[in-house]
Amino acid sequence: MVAKSLLVRLDGRFDLAAAGEVRRALLESPDGTEVYVDMSQVREFHDGAVAVLADALKAARRAVSVRGLRQHQYRMLRYLGVDASSLDPGLAPRRRAVSSVADSDG
Length: 106
What we know:
Layout: E1 4-14, H1 16-28, E2 33-45, H2 47-59, E3 64-67, H3 71-79, H4 84-87
Parallel strand pairs: 1-2, 2-3
Helix pairs in contact: 1-2
């Protein structure tokens, strides 16, 4: 079995037309395809387009990796029901090291 992957790289403006293209790519890619969406070169995000992206991500039949969103877009996705840490592993909560310091009175 050969693993398939799809890279969707965007730049400039992420508007409704661009969101529609991402949605179409997610829906039309074959089962078993690893999908990566790179938005690191996007300079302008439209909130309506982010809502379309959220719907597309929730409807996707697979895990999708999205990179390059700003904090506002990740926050919007979370409000719209998308677990942003599943999109970008770098956002996963880090475990804090537990250390205990013993008081010494001596």
